[in-house]
Amino acid sequence: MMARPLDYSRWDHIEVSDDEDETHPNVDTQSLFRWRHQARVERMEEQKKERQDFERGSLDNKKKLEETRKKLEDLSACAEAETKEQVEAQVLKLQMEMSELKKQEKEWKQKEEELTKKEKLTPWNVDTLSKDKWEKTVINKKPAKKAEATEEEKEEMQRTFVEKNEKLCKKFGMFKKYDDSMQFLTDHPELVCDECANYLAIWCINLQVEEKTALMDQVAHQTIIMQYILELAKSLDADPRACVKPFFSRIKTADKQYTDAFNDELDSFKTRVRGRAEARIERAMKEAEEEERQKRLGPGGLDPVEVFESLPQVLKDCFEKQDIPMLQKAITELPEEDARHHIDRCIKSGLWVPQDTTTTTTTTTTTTPPPTEHRFPTKVPDENTDTVLRRRKATEDGDNKTDSEQEEEDDSPDDEKPPGWQCRVQ
C-alpha cells in the first residue's frame, strides 16, 4: 500500500508584511510594508472579536435552553398544586420558548461552521504559523553583594591564599609572553583575585630591597597585568575569571594609546615600589640603631656615646687615653658644679664606674675609705656621684703630703692599672 503524499497546499499562501513583491518606483516600499502589516493586524482583531461574540452568544443560548428545560421539569413536579388550565398554559409557553432556543442553537452551530471555515481559508502569517505549547519565564536575579570583610578577615584570607598558591603565583610572575600568561591563568583560574595581586606587589618590594632590580621589573609587569584584569572585571561588573581572555585579546592587538597607558601605569608602579623599598630599608636601619643604642645604655639610662660627645675636650682626652690620674686631675680642675654634672652623667651612662667602697663578708660588713683610682669595666655596677667629690678631696690632701710619704704611695701596688681596664667608647 502506497503512503499518502503530504499536502503542502496549506503553505502556498502565507501572508508576510515585508514580502518582496515588486512595487511601483513612486511607492515607498517601507511604507507599503507598514500598511500591509497594519491591515493584517486589523483583520486579525476583527476575526478575534467575531469569535468572541460567537462564543458569548452561543454560551447564553445554552444557558437559556438549560433554564427552560429545568422549568418544565419543575412544572411537571408541582402539577397537582395547580389547576389544569394554568399548567397547560405555562407548559405551552415554555415549549414555544424551548423550540425557539433550539432553533437559535442550530443557527449558532451553523455560524460556528462558517466561522471555522473562514478561519481555515485565512492565510497564515508570522503570528498564526505556530502557537506556544507552554512557556516559562526565568528572571536571573543578581546575587546580593557580600558584606565587606574586616581587616582581620582579609589578613586571614591573604595568609590562606599564600599558603596554598605561593608557588603558582611565583611561576606566573616569571612569564614574559602574553600567550603563556593567558594559558596559565586559564588553567589556574583561582589565581585571578586580589590576593594574588597583593602577593605579587609585596614580592616586588622584597626584590627591590634585595636589589634584584631586573627580576623586580619582570614581576612588576605581571602585577600590572593582574591589576588590569581585576579593573576590567569591576568596570564590567563581571567575574574576574571571565575577563582573562578578553584582556589578553585586547592587549595583544591594542593601539598605541592603550599600550602607552599600560606602560605609564607600569612605570608608576615601579616608582612606588622603589619608594616603599627605600622606606622599609630606612625603617630597618633606624630599628637596628635603636636596638644597638638600647644595648649600650648605662645603668642610669643614658647613652655613653651621646654622653661622651657632650663632654669637654679635656675629659674626652682622658677617656680616649684611658688615663685615670689624668682624669682625676681634669675633674679637680673643673668647677665643682660642672664636675658634678659631668661625673653624674658619666656614671649613669657607664663611662665612669668608681670602685666599690663597701666590702661584704658572711659575718661582718666593713666600710673602707674611698680608693684613689677608678676603672671602666664592661659590666657597670650602680654607684653614687659623691665619689667624685671624695676623689677631689683626696687629691687635695695628697698635695700636702711629704716627699717620703709620696714616694711610699708611688711604690704601692695600688697605683698599678687595675685588671679589666676597658673604655666603653670605641
Automatic annotation (TrEMBL):
Domain Cdc37 C-terminal: from-to ranges: 296-415
Q: Has UniProt tagged this entry with the keyword Lipid biosynthesis?
A: no
Do you know which Pfam families this protein is assigned to? CDC37_C (PF08564), CDC37_M (PF08565), CDC37_N (PF03234)
Bias type Acidic residues, positions: 405-414
> What keyword terms does UniProt attach to this protein?
Chaperone, Cytoplasm
In terms of SUPFAM superfamilies, this protein maps to: Hsp90 co-chaperone CDC37
What name does UniProt use for this protein? Hsp90 chaperone protein kinase-targeting subunit
- Gene symbol of the encoding locus: LOC109463408
